[in-house]
């Protein structure tokens, strides 16, 4: 019998009656064998001297597909995209020094957005660690604040156990990145390999079952509230809670908002869905949270982009906060009812408790509440105005993309204005249809993450919705896509500028456009020509500059299934993202459009 902290790794081989005799192999071979046993069918990486032994061992693997990226950051984002659509742990593998430091942006991104990722890095020989050897970097120290856990392996005999622990930590509790840094000498060391290993993780015991008393109290509040709101965050996606969440929505009758990270957790078509809250959320969603008398936060963390000025956020609301991570409870907003546990299990128990609460207290009359919200939804719908420069409205392009491709597609956004428009104007009907860099806001995320998503869900149509700024940071991964038969499609929203920064310069810096012009779509220079760039990579490049060609160009891209396609949509650079809560201001000051601030401060 195992102790509380010592577990046998879940695996098909764990069911064997007798543990096989150890096999003699190198530490490098043990890494590859561990990946195979752990079910890692895809690894994204870029090799170098300090990890060369593992790559030599990988050459013989028949189970692990390695995809050679063009930059280590791309490996990390691709692993994120793979993990997000597949629900499995993503794996990125790079060499020491600059290889490892190049990976840190993706590690930080995975940490902020709770993506299960194992980052394997090579390290210099153990005796040289700390001597500033060639291509040495203390990557364990450098990433300490942005990982769930990290391992530095100097003894090859530890490899099976550490690999099993890394996958377990990354995928349990609140998911996140785990770093496994392996000295080259440990990779070359001869060891006795056996599987499954025993995992010894003292102190690591994620709480999955919620406290029943807190759940019952949450149910009582929900059964008796007059203006309840379910504030759904990315934890609903990561925990696979969509089905039980839908039951809660239907049972409660409450208004629902889904954050940027939770788009698709509740279908946009659901009549109780009020949209996305926050800085660029819908007026109805923002107003619902500000007016609520009960706020049930489910896998959300009260991020500043949602709350605005925290002191004025949801001033009249009693707060129930359910999350797998106890550190998030009351971190930003005090929870009146804290619930720590796996969100899927928590919501399932809340559904049972709510049914019992309805029997005891009756169902609340939410008619007045919905009359208010319906009026806001009809008065302030999402939309846009025609551009003054005659160029295409980017919102139209993105909206048509979503309508043509439909809810079965996967949409992977870069960061900037196009990210907000994609979150607003594409309708999401299922979880894991929308991938983006939410917490860190990483430009360059889209292309490699879309590549990883296509590997993780090869039968789905995967679209990168990117901007001309983000695209130029990681577009070299188109070469990876071409050479590895990964036919993603790219809707490049080209406004020839760093659009979100330009919007802020327009609104808050008197139109002083300091260094935001990229010259990618206007005038005679057009550097680079994105169609020629796509062609140079072996992809197909298309361009659309008129509303008349939007539908037919998307249709043409969809007909091409053997190579990536890049559509250069040349759009207006003056288009802005509305609604908007200016940074640091109260959500009560949301602007529906420039100069138009709705008044929803009155009570019913």
Task: Describe, in plain words, how this protein is organized in 3D.
The chain is α/β, with parallel strands linked by helices and 604 residues long. The protein is 36% helix and 17% strand. Helix 1 runs parallel beside helix 6 (159-171) and helix 11 (283-291) packs antiparallel against helix 14 (367-379).
Any idea what the CATH architecture of the largest domain is?
3-Layer(aba) Sandwich
Question: How would you describe the shape?
Answer: globular
In this structure, how is the largest beta sheet organized?
6 strands, parallel
Number of strands: 21
CATH level-3 fold name of the largest domain: Rossmann fold
CATH class group of the largest domain: Alpha Beta
- Count of helix runs: 22
Query: CATH superfamily membership of the largest domain, which one?
Result: Thiamin diphosphate (ThDP)-binding fold, Pyr/PP domains
SSE-based structural type: alpha/beta
Task: Give the fraction of residues assigned to helices.
Answer: 25-40%
Give Rg in angstroms.
Answer: 25 Å
Question: Could you say how many structural domains there are in total?
Answer: 3
**What low-confidence regions span 5 or more consecutive residues with pLDDT below 50?**
1-8, 10-17
Rounded average pLDDT: 95
What's the layout of helices and strands?
Layout: E1 6-8, E2 23-26, H1 27-37, E3 42-46, H2 52-58, E4 65-68, H3 72-86, E5 90-94, H4 98-112, E6 117-123, H5 139-142, E7 149-153, H6 159-171, E8 177-183, H7 184-188, E9 190-193, E10 198-200, H8 212-224, E11 228-232, H9 235-238, H10 242-252, E12 255-258, H11 283-291, E13 294-298, H12 304-307, E14 318-323, E15 337-340, H13 343-361, H14 367-379, H15 394-405, E16 410-413, H16 417-425, E17 434-435, H17 446-456, E18 462-467, H18 468-474, H19 477-483, E19 489-494, H20 499-508, H21 530-536, E20 540-544, H22 550-559, E21 565-570
Parallel strand pairs: 3-4, 3-5, 5-6, 6-8, 7-8, 11-12, 11-13, 13-14, 14-15, 16-17, 16-18, 18-19, 19-21, 20-21
Antiparallel strand pairs: 1-10, 2-9
């Amino acid at each position: 019998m195992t102790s509380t902290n010592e577990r046998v790794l879940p695996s098909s081989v764990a069911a064997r009656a007798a543990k096989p005799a150890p096999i003699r192999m190198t530490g490098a071979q043990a890494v590859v064998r561990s990946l195979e046993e752990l079910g890692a069918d895809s690894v994204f990486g870029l090799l170098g001297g300090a990890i060369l032994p593992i790559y030599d061992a990988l050459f013989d693997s028949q189970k692990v597909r390695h995809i050679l990226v063009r930059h280590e950051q791309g490996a990390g984002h691709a692993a994120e995209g793979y993990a997000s659509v597949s629900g499995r742990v993503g794996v990125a593998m790079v060499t020491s020094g600059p290889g490892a430091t190049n990976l840190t942006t993706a590690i930080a991104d995975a940490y902020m957005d709770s993506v299960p990722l194992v980052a394997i890095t090579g390290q210099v020989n153990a005796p040289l660690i700390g001597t500033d050897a060639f291509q040495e970097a203390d990557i364990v120290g450098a990433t300490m604040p942005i990982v769930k856990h990290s391992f530095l392996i100097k003894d090859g005999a530890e490899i099976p156990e550490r690999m099993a622990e890394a996958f377990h930590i990354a995928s349990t509790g609140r998911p996140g990145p785990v770093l496994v840094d392996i000295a080259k000498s440990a990779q070359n060391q001869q060891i006795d390999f056996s599987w499954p290993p025993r995992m010894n993780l003292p102190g690591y015991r994620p709480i999955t079952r919620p406290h029943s008393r807190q759940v019952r109290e949450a149910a009582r509040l929900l059964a008796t509230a007059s203006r309840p709101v379910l504030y759904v965050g990315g934890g609903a996606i990561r925990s696979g809670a969509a089905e039980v969440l839908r039951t809660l929505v239907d049972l409660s009758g409450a208004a629902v908002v889904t954050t940027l990270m939770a788009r698709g957790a509740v279908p946009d078509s659901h009549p109780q869905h009020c949209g996305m809250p926050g800085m660029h959320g819908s007026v109805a969603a923002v107003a619902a949270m500000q007016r609520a008398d009960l706020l049930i936060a489910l896998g959300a963390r009260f991020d500043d982009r949602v709350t605005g000025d925290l002191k004025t956020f949801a001033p009249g609301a009693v707060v129930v906060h359910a999350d797998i991570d106890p550190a998030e409870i009351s971190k930003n907003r005090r929870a009146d009812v804290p619930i720590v546990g796996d969100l899927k299990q928590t919501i399932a128990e809340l559904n049972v408790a709510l049914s019992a609460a309805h029997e005891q207290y009756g169902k609340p009359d939410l008619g007045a509440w919905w009359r208010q919200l319906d009026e806001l939804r009809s008065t302030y719908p999402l939309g846009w105005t025609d551009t003054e420069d005659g160029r295409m409205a980017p919102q139209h392009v993105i909206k048509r993309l979503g309508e043509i491709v439909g809810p079965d597609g996967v949409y992977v956004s870069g960061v900037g204005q196009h990210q907000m428009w994609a979150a607003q104007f594409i309708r999401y009907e299922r979880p894991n249809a929308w991938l983006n860099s939410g917490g860190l806001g990483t430009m360059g995320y889209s292309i490699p993450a879309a590549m990883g998503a296509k590997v993780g869900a090869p039968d789905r149509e995967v679209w990168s919705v990117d901007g001309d700024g983000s695209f130029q940071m990681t577009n070299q991964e188109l070469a990876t896509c071409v050479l590895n038969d990964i036919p993603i499609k790219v809707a490049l929203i080209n406004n020839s500028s760093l659009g979100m920064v330009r919007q802020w310069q327009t609104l808050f810096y008197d139109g002083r456009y300091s260094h935001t012009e990229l010259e990618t779509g206007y005038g005679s220079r057009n550097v680079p020509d994105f169609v020629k760039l796509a062609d140079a990579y072996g992809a197909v490049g298309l361009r659309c500059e008129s509303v008349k060609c939007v539908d037919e160009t998307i249709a043409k891209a969809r007909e091409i299934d053997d190579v990536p396609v890049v559509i250069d949509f040349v759009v207006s650079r003056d288009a802005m993202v509305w609604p908007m809560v200016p940074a640091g201001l109260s959500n009560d000051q949301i602007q529906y459009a420039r100069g138009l601030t709705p008044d929803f401060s009155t009570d019913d």
